[in-house]
Amino acid sequence: MKKYNLIIIALITLIVLSCKEQVEEKSSRVDGLPYYSDASFTPHWLDSKSEALSTFHKIPKFNLTDQDGQEVTEKTFDNKIYVTDFFFTSCPGICPKMTENMSVLQDAFKDDAEVLLLSHSVTPVKDSVSTLKHYAEGKGVISNKWHLVTGDRKQIYDLGRQAYFVEEDLGGEKTDDDFLHTENFVLIDKDKHIRGIYNGLNKTAVQQLIADIKTLEIEDK
């Protein structure tokens, strides 16, 4: 009888721990997310109503074209939370995994109009609209939810390095001739502020990103 009771207690403990892990996996790290203003990704813990945000770093204006031939600008993301990355369709290395994880985000927020995805081609000369469209169809990309964009190379590279700071972990000065290649996903809020950077190859990081997007949605309410 004593042995039977011990088995029951052990089973209950495992169930409780399992439930706790599931809850923690879906929870954000904090009640609110920090703001970031430069490539060092030093967190700034500011209230969303802080006056300091009026002059804080924001994603600037841009003008690109997506897989459907539609113009995509910063206004496309007005009052939207979005996740952005940089890739190219012929990439044999990290890009397929990044695209797979962006698909995870797409599935998580498929029916949520507040959340969009933005992937920039770093080989825009090769990645024409038709090439992006073919790629998008093969990857199950949902139009107007996930924009794969091409356009002026300098504009794309300036956005990556000076606006989103996606190469923050590579170090050293980059020139216009240097290839932009990074696995980072960047989270942008409805006011065009950077609120997080994540390893787009890491499943745990992607789950954390999902939780942080939900935190941002609560913050905006």
TrEMBL record:
GO molecular function: metal ion binding
Keyword annotations from UniProtKB, A to Z: Copper, Disulfide bond, Metal-binding
Binding, Cu cation: C91, C95, H181
Record-annotated Thioredoxin domain positions: 53-218
Pfam families, alphabetized: SCO1-SenC
Alphabetical list of SUPFAM superfamilies matching this protein: Thioredoxin-like (SSF52833)
Domain of life: Bacteria
Disulphide linkage map: C91-C95
UniProt record similarity statement: Belongs to the SCO1/2 family.
Name of this chain's protein: Protein SCO1/2
